[in-house]
# Entry
Amino acid sequence: MGVLLFLELIHSKIDQELYLIHETLGRKSLNNYHDGGEAILEAFRNLGVDYVISSPGSEWPSLWEAMARQKRDGTAGPVYMDCGHEILAVTMASAYTHITGRMQAVILHAGAGLMQGSMAVSAARAMETPMVVMSGESLGYGETEFEPGSQWYRNLSIVGGSQRLLEPVVKWAQQVPAPETLYESVVRAGELAQRNPRGPTYLCVSMETMTHEWLKPDALRKSPPSPKFQPIPDEIDKIAALIAHAECPLISVENAGPDRGAFDALVELAELMSIPVVEGQGAFFANFPKSHDLYMGTNINPFLEETDLALLVESRTPWYPPSNTPKNAEIVAIGINPLKSHMVYQVMNADHYLEGDVAATLRLLTEALRRLGIDATKMSERRARWRAKHEEWCEGLRAAEDNSVDRDVITVPLLMKTLRDVMPAETSYVDETIVHSGAIRDHAMWDDSLSFFRAPSGLGQGLGYALGVKLAMPERNVVMTIGDGTFMYNPVVPAIAFADEHELPLLIIVANNAKYAAMQHTHDQFYPAGTSITTNDYYGVNIKGPKYEEAASMVGGYGKLVRNPADLEPALREALRSIQAGKTAILNVNMPDKGAPR
Ligand SMILES: Cc1ncc(C[n+]2csc(CCOP(=O)(O)OP(=O)(O)O)c2C)c(N)n1
Ligand SMILES: [Mg+2]
# Structure
């Protein structure tokens, strides 16, 4: 007994000594002793990340510790934000990056978070958005000294590793095997994401690695910005000569915005050579000022026959069907990465490629054309012709808007005209409607590159994307137009809760036609004399729908059902007051008009 007591005392003494030694070591190297969470945060800092946007999971305490230390010590570094849905986290990061040009970090939970966020990650890839996405895993499942929590054993393992889940939708997916390689792996994932073709990269890190000691090297470099590149002078001169000699050049642009440099450079080139500009029907961004007399709308078909030179500027899908190419034209694809490896099929039929930074390439072309000399008379005649065509296009829109005023239903032209009357000029629109989308794109007026956004398919990304736009430009009003069906596909509650918590109010307009009209349209197109159309018995079409507007009351915002055209303007004014007071507003607008799907 006495011996046991003695041994216990000795053990306790040793424990105390060890504790003291550890403490001393800890104190001695306080600036140098951290774990993997610090390595990840330090990598984010050195990558210039502004926001770590999280849909949290139990693998992240080491990063949270590092965030708490960052705050306690007043260290400069990214702001951390939680949100309640992976799609929100990814789309917010995506929108923020499109506007600021700066890559962000998204941290998700294990395999479940990846699966939930993967639609938005895939869209980020389609939009060529650099982004670092991370999630965690357990290696020991409770069999080692490290206790991850039994949920990792029961529910959270992914056979073959979590990276398998995202591999098809990211440009690079990897597991980080060791604490020693963690920091550089995160930096590398960030640098890879920003290289051409830009896109999301993914890292899976075990909690064992994240909680393991990480010795911060004394000097860590800041990651340099991804270099820009541009075509060589010979290539520029060749294309400039083609433009100079073309009788009927045409520009088709899809995604030059929201980069202001590219937007302005495109205007300059188009003006110099009086080239009409057609925007792609699936453009993600605003690419050209719509009041400009060279803006021709989104229908390229009337131009295909006559054009002898088509300049495709960041244009992925300039015509449809894909082989409906201009038959008498030379085709030049201009862009940072014109051939999209994430697309299964893409017919550019390009005779020439000018690959590199769009703004730089367009400016080089403009300079080369100036050197070649401009035939001012020819250019002003050409401009006059296109001005008349632009006026025709404007007239069509005006007529639709004028007609909309006397109708007893709310249509897109009325909605967009009223929005224009009510909203301040500095307003950005994010669209996630379906059958109304073509008309919304036509009637939304913009003259700057930050006015219009539309993420690619799948439904459910609009609210997150709109929050990201607001996060990047809090001074702007952000209006989200969204279908009734699509509203239900969005993580509405976490989105408006996030908007409220972070004072990023949105003005949400639900274009309510009480159906998935796109489905009906397709059904009718396939079976124009079918049983559904003749008996009015549709499947996959009708939506009863809740009182969408009442969701605003969850955060004390303004919500209103708008049935009649006369009520639209007052409701919009009230909604504007609501967002100006920091509160999200939702208008549930009856729009039975089927619209014209594109
Ligand atoms: C995640 C996801 N699920 C399903 C679809 C298929 N889909 C495309 S349009 C649409 C209907 C959307 O309804 P709504 O927003 O009311 O627009 P409307 O068709 O009435 O214009 C659906 C279900 C999709 N694009 N994405
Ligand atoms: Mg609908």
Remarks:
- The chain is about 45% helix and 15% strand.
- Residues 483-485, 513, 515-517 surround magnesium ion (ligand 2) (CB under 6 Å).
- The chain has three domains: 34-210, 233-390, 407-590.
- The domain at 407-590 is CATH 3.40.50.970 (Rossmann fold).
